[in-house]
Amino acid sequence: MKENDVNSKVKRLKEINNLSDDIVKEGQELKIEICP
After folding, report:
1. What is the Cβ-side half-sphere exposure of residue 29, based on CA atoms within 13 angstroms?
2. What's the number of domains the chain is made of?
3. Structural domain of residue 5, as residue ranges?
4. What whole-number distance in Å separates Cα of residue 36 and Cα of residue 23?
5. Counting runs of H as helices and runs of E as strands, what totals does the chain give?
6. Is residue 12 part of a domain?
7. Predicted model pTM
8. pLDDT beneath 50, residues of the chain
9. CA angle 36, 30, 35 (to 5 degrees)
10. What is the CA radius of gyration of the chain?
């Protein structure tokens, strides 16, 4: 396992984590819109 591979995997995981945060935020906003 080269260091470069590890770095790209870590970067990818961070991107996925950011995406899931965005999805959670959007879900909360949708709930607010549906249930005022």
Report:
1. 6
2. 1
3. 1-20+31-35
4. 20
5. 1, 0
6. yes
7. 0.58
8. none
9. 20
10. 16
